[in-house]
Amino acid sequence: MEKDLFSQENDIIVPENFNEADEQLAKIAEMSKRPYLLLKENNFFEAKIAFEEILKIQDNNSYALVGLGDTERKQGHFHEAMTYYNRCLESYPANSYALFGLADCYKAMNQYSRAIEIWQQYLVQDDKNITVITRVADAYRKIHDFRKSKELYLKVLDMETDNAYALIGLGHLNYDFKEYKDALYYWTRVYEINKEHSDIRVLTAIGNCHRKLKTFDEGVKFFEMTLDREPNNFYALFGLADCYRGMNQQFKSIEYWKKILEIDPKNKVILTRTGDAYRTTGNYEEAKNFYNKALEIDFDIYAAIGLALICKGEGKIDEAITRFNNLIKNDQRNSRLYIDLAECYLAVGRREDAVKTLENYMRIDGRNYAVKNLYAKLTRI
Asked: Over the stretch 167-211, which tens digit does the pLDDT of each residue have?
């Protein structure tokens, strides 16, 4: 488990016979009992005052300096927090609480390389601290160092076989690198450890792996489990809609796209996806309705493509040609636009224009299989 920074013990021992300096230490020890209790209750104002009172007696007191750092960090004031942690480290370079807090500040500011440096200083003193090792692995994952990240997560699993943080981290690591089968393996292990109370994020992560692997039936199960516990979960609704789209069950897909729109009616991406689903079922009027709603919010290339495809499907070829030509001007590397435009030209007997359209794209990218295949068919003697 993560080290509880609020359980720092006072390192002040008061002997039976003490002089004036010892009396000061005893006073600080008594004062130190209150501030972290206030911090636990998120009473930042009173906690800060209490820690500052200690500094009036001993200006480099590590307990108070770390406490002030934690007070600022918990409020998101990372630069202020770092000032206190660094003050502590000037007097006590190996203070583990200051190192821990300082590294967490760098992490929160997305300065992962700097966070790693600080955590590694911590590990010099305590190289078996699972919480810190996992944090370092997370940071390496954030800077896309797959090898070091995986090595550290696996080190944690060697120390604690079913450590949830390491298993979840390995899931994210493999998912980020499109290793979906491996990601599924690790997230499934997390799920199996505690099926009844599994984190919803683990359920949706497993569902997304199945979605990427096109094992849609399995994905549906996990997204439905999520909705049983959280009926309006966006990721589960999206996952179900996309799984049913993948299974070519467009009417079921529409059901879940529209549930998302009940919650977020101005979601341009979902409006376009709903339009796509209606277009696939041949319901062009509803498709136009959703595409136009998306375009009213802001220009969306996929909604515009959808409207062009409807023109093509309805036999309004001249209008479709105009739309596709305009879209190509704004998105010259989209091979799909060139193929659709070429097909429109063929539909009205303009074979040479179709060939030229494909040649134009091949000057940009001569390796696209779909474009090359259609070009070969049109130029075959």
From this structure: 999 999 999 999 999 999 999 999 999 888 889 999 999 999 999
Across the chain, mean pLDDT equals 91
Query: Which tokens sit at 32?
Result: 């130190």
Residue 101's Cα: distance from chain center in Å? 23
Element (H, E) at 109: none
Q: Helix axis angle, 335-347 relative to 351-364, nearest 10°? A: 170
DSSP structure class, residue 17:
S
pLDDT at position 218: 97
Round to whole Å and give the CA distance between 308 and 331: 14
Question: Token digits for 361?
Answer: 């794209």
How many helices (H) and strands (E) the chain has is answered by 22, 0
- pLDDT reading at 1 higher than 60: no
Per the CB < 8 A criterion, the answer to whether 232 and 254 are in contact is no
CB 192 within 8 A of CB 221: no
Query: What pTM was estimated for this model as a whole?
Result: 0.81
Q: CA 260, CA 263: separation in Å to the nearest integer?
A: 5
Greatest distance between any 2 Cα atoms in the chain: 107
With contact defined as beta carbons under 8 Å apart, do 307 and 291 qualify?
Answer: yes
Structure tokens at 43: 């009473």
Residue 218 is encoded by which pair of tokens? Answer: 């399995």
- Domain annotation for the chain: domains and CATH numbers: 1-127 (1.25.40.10), 315-381 (1.25.40.10)
Dist. CA 69–CA 118, nearest whole Å = 15
